[in-house]
Design goal:
Radius of gyration: 12 Å
CATH architecture: 3-Layer(aba) Sandwich
Oligomer: single chain
CATH topology: Rossmann fold
Distance between the termini: 22 Å
Helix content: 10-25%
Order of helices and strands: EEHEE
Strand order of the largest sheet: 2-1-3-4
Number of strands: 4
CATH class: Alpha Beta
CATH superfamily: P-loop containing nucleotide triphosphate hydrolases
Strand content: over 45%
Length: about 70
């Protein structure tokens, strides 16, 4: 059993010609605490909207507790 709780692979979001998030790879393991930091317009909010399914991703994969989710 893996200790990875959340994983993204090549997570991408485009709004027309705007690349809001491109190829985001991320792993969160049990017991970890993380912060998502970056400049304005870096894709932080877009990333969170993708992993919480508020918006549909353009491409990429998301796993939660070892299962791929859509």
């Amino acid at each position: 059993m893996s200790d990875i709780v959340l994983k993204t692979e090549n997570l991408t979001k485009r709004y027309g010609g705007v690349h809001a998030l491109e190829g985001a790879n991320f792993e969160l393991r049990k017991g970890e605490h993380v912060a998502i930091m970056g400049d304005n317009g870096a894709g932080k909010s877009t990333f969170v909207r993708q992993i919480t399914a508020v918006e549909q991703r353009t491409s990429g994969k998301i796993w939660f507790d070892g299962k791929e989710v859509n």
